[in-house]
């Protein structure tokens, strides 16, 4: 079987990214782009991002998770700490996260160090989730092999009974990671493959060095 995709071609013409309009701090530019993609209404889940980890098997692995908060400090997502990604991060906290917003012809690539957020912050976010999502976090030993879908559905039903009229507490193995960036690269598609790439790198004195990269 084969399918040639050589004629898939697109000219990127929507916008530009020049040194004159960028801020000294990349989080401000991240926020500007995030607001713009939200306002464009052209991306279903603008907060969906790819997280790459280096696994215990030595292979990189990407998967999509949802960004739940960003601050000047970093990017927060929630997951099972004992999942494949959780274990990978425990062994090697160096991760890469990326966003691709096709309608804006934009990509952002962030390298950083992931660490668990404070327990009370995870509690607060867990508390805000609907009961179904809370039980979902409990029912699933994320990344473990399961015998069947029926097994999971039965487990969920049992938990629904067990927790009827009871408060559902956050399990200790579920919570947030914050990715503290050391490098953030903004990519804006431009015509003739002369795309704009601006990279911010964190310096020892916590200033950000700004460089333009060849496309
Ligand atoms: C749109 C989308 C959003 C997702 N959001 C999350 C999330 O916020 N947290 C999470 O643990 N998994 C999320 N997932 C599932 C992950 O992609 C992945 O399957 C899961 O975390 C297990 O990954 P691992 O086995 O590599 O640890 C999401 C998947 C998609 C497609």
Automatic annotation (TrEMBL):
GO terms for biological process: pyridoxine biosynthetic process. The keyword Oxidoreductase applies. Residues 39-158 form the Pyridoxamine 5'-phosphate oxidase N-terminal domain. InterPro entries: Pyridox_Oxase (IPR000659), Pyridox_Oxase_CS (IPR019740), Pyridox_Oxase_N (IPR011576), Pyridoxamine_oxidase_dimer_C (IPR019576), Split_barrel_FMN-bd (IPR012349). Residues 174-215 form the Pyridoxine 5'-phosphate oxidase dimerisation C-terminal domain. It catalyses: pyridoxine 5'-phosphate + O2 = pyridoxal 5'-phosphate + H2O2; pyridoxamine 5'-phosphate + O2 + H2O = pyridoxal 5'-phosphate + H2O2 + NH4(+). FMN binds at residues 63-68, 78-79, 85, 107, 142-143, 187, 197. Binds 1 FMN per subunit. Substrate binds at residues 9-12, 68, 125, 129, 133, 193-195. GO terms for molecular function: FMN binding; pyridoxamine phosphate oxidase activity. Keywords: Flavoprotein, FMN, Oxidoreductase, Pyridoxine biosynthesis. Its cofactor is FMN. Pathway: Cofactor metabolism; pyridoxal 5'-phosphate salvage; pyridoxal 5'-phosphate from pyridoxine 5'-phosphate: step 1/1; Cofactor metabolism; pyridoxal 5'-phosphate salvage; pyridoxal 5'-phosphate from pyridoxamine 5'-phosphate: step 1/1. It comes from the Bacteria. Its EC number is 1.4.3.5. SUPFAM superfamilies: FMN-binding split barrel (SSF50475). It holds the Pfam family PNPOx_N. Homodimer. Catalyzes the oxidation of either pyridoxine 5'-phosphate (PNP) or pyridoxamine 5'-phosphate (PMP) into pyridoxal 5'-phosphate (PLP). PANTHER family: PYRIDOXINE-5'-PHOSPHATE OXIDASE, PYRIDOXINE-5-PHOSPHATE OXIDASE. NCBIfam families: pdxH, PRK05679.1. This is Pyridoxine/pyridoxamine 5'-phosphate oxidase. It comes from Arenibacter echinorum. The lineage of its organism: Bacteria, Pseudomonadati, Bacteroidota, Flavobacteriia, Flavobacteriales.
């Amino acid at each position: 079987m084969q399918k040639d995709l050589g004629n898939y071609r697109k000219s990127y013409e929507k916008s530009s990214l020049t040194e004159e309009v960028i801020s000294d701090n990349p989080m401000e530019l991240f926020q500007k782009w995030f607001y713009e993609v939200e306002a464009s209404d052209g991306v279903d889940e603008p907060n969906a991002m790819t997280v790459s980890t280096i696994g215990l098997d030595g292979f990189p692995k990407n998967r999509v998770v949802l960004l739940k908060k960003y601050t000047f400090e970093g990017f927060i997502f929630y997951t099972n700490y004992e999942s494949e990604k959780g274990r990978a991060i425990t062994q090697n906290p160096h991760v890469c996260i990326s966003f691709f917003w096709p309608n804006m012809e934009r990509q952002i690539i962030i390298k950083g160090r992931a660490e668990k957020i404070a327990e009370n912050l995870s509690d607060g976010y867990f508390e805000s989730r609907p009961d179904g999502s809370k039980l979902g976090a409990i029912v699933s030993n994320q990344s473990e092999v399961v015998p069947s879908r029926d097994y999971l559905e039965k487990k969920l039903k049992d938990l629904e009974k067990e927790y009827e009229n009871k408060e559902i507490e956050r399990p200790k193995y579920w919570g947030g990671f914050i990715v503290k960036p050391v490098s953030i690269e903004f990519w804006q598609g431009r015509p003739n493959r002369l795309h704009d790439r601006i990279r911010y790198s964190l310096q020892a004195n916590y200033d950000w060095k700004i460089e333009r990269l060849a496309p």
